[in-house]
Write a structure and sequence with these properties.
The structure holds 2 protein chains of 2 kinds. By secondary structure, chain A is an alpha+beta fold. Chain A has 12 helices and 14 strands. Chain A folds into 3 domains: about 45 residues, Uridine Diphospho-n-acetylenolpyruvylglucosamine Reductase, domain 2 (2-Layer Sandwich), CATH 3.30.43.10; about 110 residues, Uridine Diphospho-n-acetylenolpyruvylglucosamine Reductase, domain 3; about 110 residues, CO dehydrogenase flavoprotein, C-terminal domain (Enolase-like, domain 1). In chain A, strand 8 and strand 9 form a beta hairpin. Chain B contains 20 helices and 33 strands. The chains are: A alpha+beta, B alpha+beta.
Chain lengths: ~280, ~800
């Protein structure tokens, strides 16, 4: 648990970050809260000769809410998400999910940008971002571009972000409605055995649109379009929930680990998805 | 000096002696981050050691190339077995009579085994150099299953002579270590063959790890000028370490000083001697500089001593009415690559033969086969006396299985088989003499406290509701009544490596009436500085606040066998009381002289000696202490000091009744402890608050073990649980709320009647949690399912029983 030696940089603006990345190429990595990268470095599973700390980079923090649009700076910590009164009002599912990430100490350091950027399938925010149809802003040597969360994840630790790009902010539209982030884990600080994010809308007793995404049930977060459609236009009765769960479970591909074998994970995923839908519907 | 205005009650309470919930004196420094641990030790010119470890569970070491590592700036030395061989230190003896490689000698036998020791000027350079040591391995077939190991042609221990006896008698196979037997096998089998009812079950107590917050480490400092070796380390038995270090190194024992500074938890993990200690010593001798070695968390979990790993096959017989008639147990014990168990010499399975538990079982037999596998060595007593948690888990599971066989309430089955109060001292079928107990009273108190009958009624209603589809949650009521055996131990039957398991206390009273007491034990969080001062306060009449307790420095403390197996209070606590009584005996002579009466005419009263029949004439202990140093008393040597070495006449037998009420979500396998009631009887209670803390801590470790904590390997011998992500340590969030209670049945042979308590909650807690899981599924046909009861295994129980439709 002793890392190899590395150069440490603490730039104050995004262009300096990009310049450092361009200069050092594959040998450089940016670090947000560090709670994924530093353990990997200490285990010497990641050797990073040039470590670029984003803590002091201007313009990467803060939460702004403009009507239905929520914009969150990449360096916003989980604790800030939890404590933000406007966010609690506009998009309470973020708080619900953030409270289930790690423990208070880690949440004080861990950021939403770090959580979504590196493509760790265990992280909770990627699934939630897909559920919310969030957009990620990336800045690189060629300027700025936006990638949808639903298009961002390619495989475990492989994303649409190129090595030269930095994820700087996240935005999504929040229109109220029912929500739930349901997570089963072995203990505080653990990744999900199965987790599910649900948002849905209720109009005159019927579901007017639903979005369902899952965490740690594949090598990438899984947004199940079919599961959402299965609820759409229904009264979210037992049959509709059953169809949605079946559709969602059909889209996952969990692998065996110390949390349990595949059959267990598939079964529990079904239970967690069902509970998430029912909870979201009860809040709609 | 006269304090007549104080009542006798005031004087008793001022002492903060036995029975006082005195606050722990250690906590001021621990809670402020001012403790002094091994890793806090920094010495001028200190070097740092780090290990190259094997990635393979079984492989031949073809070559080790240290050139690149040695070329790195800051690297001082890279030691391999070849370097240690001329000193005969490439292997070392284990506590269990086996030997263990210090550094890989031709082959490796478990993943994480020590292969080379890098010494560098800087901790970071040492880690860099580890990566530069090139080791060529040739992989060999891996044996992780002890049953398969006993059948396999693969020879794990090529160093052992085929067919030759091991430390504990004949070995029947090249991967066999010993067969140890106790009890009457023939008579037991006869009873079982003719019994009205027999219940049979194989109970696996999985491999786990003590995982203290502070990992193991040492700083070795060889002073070549005066020839003295100082060894700071995380040692639960510093004096034994000194003796072993002397024997191994050839350095005379007076030239070795071993110091255990503050220790951040031991739980058995810090009893043994590890390769890191030997390598640090050698490196310091070679370089002439102090060498620090502190393992990291993964090294601790993968390579230092594990606990448990017992496959216990049991048969228990009874009459139809439920009176137990016999118990038969055969254990296949997976010891890993080397037999490095911490056990008294004569008992390779520790005190496992306490497995008749709290029950009057007329005839019993135990046989334990020790087996080598490609797993880390160890087999330490993780917060329990030697193999007692295994024994308690075994019997408490067998009782439950028998209850199923008899279609009987498990609480009632226990009650009709308890050893009765009037049977103590009780001779068990497997050879122990239980000192004292009052099991029925404790059991009734516990059942009453949780309203057992109401719980059973609620459970029956829940089962009905479940069957009707109204709920997906089941309710489990986990019962346990355990008997511990602690205080190792009488020299007549307990020794470790030939060293008798006595313990000691040396007291020096200062002229102004304060004192220092030094003991052969060492606290790792138990609070000795608090509680031993209390024993002494009551014995010698000086306030506990005026008594310093010091342990862990072999240059100053009297020899003792250390702290593990709840032995400190039963053994060193007794030594403390007896040394205190020697002080008091001398104080009595001094008091009599000062009061100008005959010795027999004064008597001890709380904090003074008074003239019999004239309580207004007295001398306080403070006055007596001053006189001891400043008054020439004819026929009495100056000073007031005493030392006592205590060889206990018997073990002590704490006991308790634990009840766990658990909610189980059948669909996800998640569990919630709704209630946990723990009644402990540890004899005389020294400090109720410290006892409560011990019980909370032990129960939390028991909860971890029962509900998720394990050291697991894949079939290639890769350790799958090498970090705290996968090795379960409960946080405050997962930890249940506990209700503690007690009865008090003093030990008849201990000077103050105390029995020890630190490990009872682990011994009793594990079966209580596990039985709750089993009990929830009993109405659906579950007999037994192995721990740990993590989510997927609980889910699997439900799935196997057809509860997921």
């Amino acid at each position: 648990m002793v890392p190899a030696s590395f150069e440490y940089y603490r730039p104050t603006d995004v262009s300096s970050v990009i310049a450092l990345i361009t200069q050092h190429g594959d040998d450089a990595r940016v670090m947000a809260g560090g709670h994924s990268l530093i353990p990997m470095m200490k285990l010497r599973m990641a050797e990073i000769p040039h470590l670029i700390d984003l803590q002091d980079v201007a313009g990467l923090t803060g939460i702004t809410i403009d009507g239905f649009t929520v914009r969150i700076g990449a360096m916003t910590t989980q604790t800030e998400l939890i404590d933000h009164p406007g966010l609690r009002q506009t998009a309470p599912i973020l708080r619900e999910a953030a409270l289930q990430i790690a423990d208070p100490q880690v949440r004080c350091m861990g950021t939403i940008g770090g959580n979504v950027a590196n493509g760790d399938p265990g992280n909770d925010m990627p699934g939630l971002m897909q559920c919310l149809n969030a957009q990620f802003t990336l800045i690189g040597p060629d300027g700025e571009r936006t990638v949808a969360a639903r298009d961002y994840y390619e495989a475990a630790y492989f994303t649409a972000r190129s090595e030269e790009e930095v994820l700087t902010s996240i935005h999504f539209s929040a229109r109220g409605g029912g929500y739930c982030y349901e997570k089963q884990k072995r203990k505080i600080g653990d990744y999900a055995t199965a987790a599910c994010a649900v948002t849905l809308y209720k109009e005159e007793g019927l579901c007017a649109g639903a979005s369902i995404a899952m965490t740690n049930l594949s090598d990438v977060p899984v947004w199940s379009k079919a599961a959402g459609l299965a609820l759409d236009g229904t009264s979210v009765d037992a049959n509709a929930v059953k169809s949605a769960v079946e559709a969602a479970v059909a889209d996952i591909d969990p692998s065996e680990d110390n949390r349990g074998p595949v059959d267990f994970k598939v079964y529990v995923a079904g239970v967690i998805i069902k509970r998430a839908i029912e909870s979201a519907w009860s809040r709609a | 000096m006269k304090d007549d205005i104080q009542t006798r009650e005031d004087r008793v309470s001022n002492l903060k002696g036995l029975g006082s919930s005195r606050k722990r004196v250690e906590d001021a420094r621990f809670t402020q981050g001012k403790g002094n641990y091994v890793d806090d030790i920094k010495m001028p010119g200190m070097l740092h050691g780090d290990f190259v470890r094997s990635p393979h569970a079984h492989a031949r070491v073809k070559s080790i190339n240290i050139e690149q590592a040695m070329a790195l700036d800051g690297v001082v030395a890279v030691l391999t077995a070849k370097d240690l061989e001329p000193l005969n230190l490439h292997w070392m003896p284990t506590l269990a009579g086996d030997k263990q490689m210090v550094l890989a000698d031709g082959k490796v036998l478990f993943q994480g085994q020590e292969v080379a020791f890098v010494v560098a000027r800087d901790r970071y350079v040492a880690a860099d150099a580890v990566e530069l040591v090139e080791v060529e391995y040739e992989e060999l077939p891996v044996l992780v299953n002890p049953f398969a190991a006993l059948e396999s042609e693969v020879v794990l221990r090529e160093d052992l002579e085929a067919g030759a006896d091991g430390a504990h008698g004949p070995r029947k196979h090249h991967n066999h270590i010993f067969l140890w037997e106790e009890g009457d096998k023939v008579a037991t089998e006869q009873v079982l063959d003719n019994a009205e009812v027999v219940a049979e079950e194989t109970v696996y107590y999985h491999r786990t790890h003590p995982c203290p917050l502070e990992t193991c480490g040492t700083v070795a400092s060889m002073d070549k000028v005066n020839g003295k070796l100082t060894l700071y380390g995380t040692f639960q038995a510093p004096h034994v370490v000194r003796t072993v270090a002397s024997i191994l190194s050839g350095i005379e024992e007076h030239n070795i000083r071993v110091v255990s500074p503050d220790i951040g938890g031991g739980f058995g993990n810090k009893v043994g001697v590890y390769p890191g200690y030997v390598c640090a010593i050698v490196a310091s001798i070679v370089t002439g500089a102090p060498v620090k070695w502190v393992e990291d968390r993964m090294e601790n979990l993968m390579a230092t001593a594990f606990a448990r790993d017992y496959w216990m096959k049991g048969r228990i017989s009874a009459t139809r009415e439920g009176k137990i008639t016999g118990l038969h147990c055969h254990v296949t014990a997976d010891h890993g690559a080397f037999d490095a168990c911490a056990d008294p010499t004569k008992y390779p399975a520790g005190f496992f033969h306490i497995c008749t538990g709290s029950y009057d079982i007329p005839v019993a037999y135990v046989g334990v086969d020790g087996v080598y596998t490609n797993k880390a060595p160890g087999g330490v007593a993780y917060r329990c006396s030697f193999r007692v948690t295994e024994a308690a888990y075994f019997i408490e599971r067998m009782i439950e299985v028998l209850a199923i066989e008899l279609d009987m309430d498990a609480a009632e089955l226990r009650r009709i088989n308890f050893i009765k109060k009037e049977q103590f001292p009780y001779q068990s079928a497997l050879g122990w003499e239980y000192d004292s107990g009052n099991y029925h009273t404790a059991w009734d108190k516990a059942l009453e406290a949780v309203q057992y009958n109401h719980l059973r009624k609620e459970q029956a209603e829940r089962v009905e509701a479940f069957k009707k589809g109204e709920t997906r949650k089941l309710l489990g009521i986990g019962l346990t009544f355990f008997t511990e055996i602690v205080g190792a131990g009488p020299v007549k039957n307990c020794d470790i490596l030939g060293m008798g398991m006595f313990d000691s206390c040396e007291i020096r009273i200062h002229p102004t009436g304060s004192a220092i007491a030094r003991l052969g034990t060492i606290s790792q969080g138990q609070g000795h500085a608090t509680t031993f001062a209390q024993i002494l306060a009551t014995e010698i009449g000086l306030p506990a606040d005026s008594i310093t307790v010091e342990e862990g420095d072999t240059d100053t403390a009297p020899y003792g066998l250390g702290t593990y197996g709840s032995r400190s209070t039963p053994v060193a606590g007794a030594a403390t009381a007896l040394a205190g009584r020697k002080i008091r005996a001398k104080a009595q002579m001094i008091a009599a002289y000062l009061l100008e009466v005959h010795d027999d005419d004064v008597e001890f009263d709380v904090d003074r000696f008074v003239v019999k029949g004239a309580p207004e004439r007295f001398k306080t202990m403070k006055e007596i202490a001053f006189a001891a140093y400043n008054q020439a008393i004819p026929g009495v040597e100056p000073g007031l000091e005493a030392v006592s070495y205590y060889d206990p006449p018997n073990m002590t037998y704490p006991f308790g009744a634990y009840i766990c009420v658990m909610e189980i979500d059948v669909d996800t396998g998640t569990t919630e402890i709704r209630q946990f009631y723990a009644l402990d009887d540890c004899g005389t209670r020294i400090n109720p608050m410290v006892i409560e803390g011990q019980v909370h801590g032990g129960l939390t470790e028991a909860f971890a073990i029962a509900m998720g904590q394990e050291i697991a390997y894949d079939e290639l011998g890769n350790c799958k649980t090498g970090t705290l992500m996968d090795f379960f340590i409960p946080t405050s969030w997962e930890t249940p709320h506990y209700t503690t209670d007690h009865t008090e049945t003093p030990s008849p042979h201990h000077p103050i009647g105390a029995k020890g308590v630190g490990e009872s909650p682990n011994v009793g807690g594990v079966p209580a949690f596990s039985n709750a899981v089993h009990d929830a599924f009993r109405p659906f046909g579950l007999r037994h399912a192995n721990m740990p009861h993590d989510h997927w295994r609980v889910w699997k129980i439900a799935n196997d029983l057809g509860l997921h439709v």
